[in-house]
């Protein structure tokens, strides 16, 4: 009788443990404090733009690190960014090859090499060289692969419930967005470029800019809505649209079959 009761309790504990693991697996990892090293050319203003959710709270950063005067911040100094001041994490660099650089101050300040596993926040920019490439896992959205000779920005969310927005200023990217049952117009991701905006609910697609910043959006799976100059076209699997800067999108046209986007 004791053995049966013991077995029953063990089985019950295992079930409860597995359910707990399943529930917590979907939760976003909690932020931790980070320690940074002040780089040449950085000052308190740039550091606040890079790492603080509200750059106006720089005085709290000084107080936390027991620094009485902002003029004491010098290259080589280490600073701890506490959780209560940190920007929310929008994504993580999951694959890096070649020269890929990061700028956490919206393009101002020095550029530094992107490291595998590096966190990305709203207004962070990524720049790739002629042989550079980076995969970015955007939380709750999917995978974005930024190709060579590109300039990319994680813009973030306007509200907690709005779509994640990113920008492509130069070059090209592929994306694989997790499928969504949301209704048309309720996007999981929007990609802004100099000539158009793409709204995505769940699909695999490519955005390419030419030297004149005209864009081509190709859909490999699912649906992408492309808008420019007040006109929206719906691009379905196996189709693409071209947008000349300052003009509306052309009607979608057929493209050759493309390979599936897989994580490196």
TrEMBL record:
Domain LysM: start-end pairs: 34-81
CDD domains linked to this entry: LysM
Signal peptide: 1-25
UniProt keyword annotation of Magnesium present: no
PANTHER family assigned: LIPL45-RELATED LIPOPROTEIN-RELATED (PTHR38731)
Name of the protein in question: LysM domain-containing protein
UniProt entry tagged with the keyword Signal: yes
Keyword field: Signal
């Amino acid at each position: 009788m004791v053995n049966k009761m013991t077995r029953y309790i063990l089985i019950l504990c295992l079930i409860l443990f597995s359910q707990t693991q399943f529930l917590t697996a979907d939760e976003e990892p909690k932020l931790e404090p980070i320690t940074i090293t002040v780089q040449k050319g950085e000052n308190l203003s740039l550091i606040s733009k890079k790492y603080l959710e509200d750059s106006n709270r720089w005085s709290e950063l000084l107080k936390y690190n027991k620094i009485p005067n902002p003029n004491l911040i010098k290259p080589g100094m280490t600073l701890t960014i506490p959780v209560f001041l940190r920007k929310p994490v929008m994504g993580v660099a999951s694959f890096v090859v070649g020269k890929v650089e990061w700028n956490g101050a919206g393009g101002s300040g020095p550029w530094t090499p992107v490291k595998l596993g590096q966190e990305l926040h709203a207004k962070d920019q990524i720049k790739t060289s002629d042989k550079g490439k980076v995969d970015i896992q955007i939380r709750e959205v999917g995978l974005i692969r930024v190709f060579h000779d590109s300039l990319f920005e994680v813009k973030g969310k306007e509200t907690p419930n709005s779509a994640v927005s990113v920008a492509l200023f130069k070059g090209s990217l592929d994306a694989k967005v997790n499928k969504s049952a949301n209704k048309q117009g309720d996007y999981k991701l929007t990609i802004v470029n100099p000539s158009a905006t793409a709204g995505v609910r769940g699909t695999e697609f490519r955005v390419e800019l030419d030297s004149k910043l005209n864009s081509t959006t190709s859909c490999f799976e699912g649906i992408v809505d492309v808008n420019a100059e007040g006109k929206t076209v719906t691009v379905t699997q196996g189709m693409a649209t071209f947008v000349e800067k300052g003009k509306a999108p052309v009607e979608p046209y057929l493209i050759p079959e493309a390979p599936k986007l897989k994580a490196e």
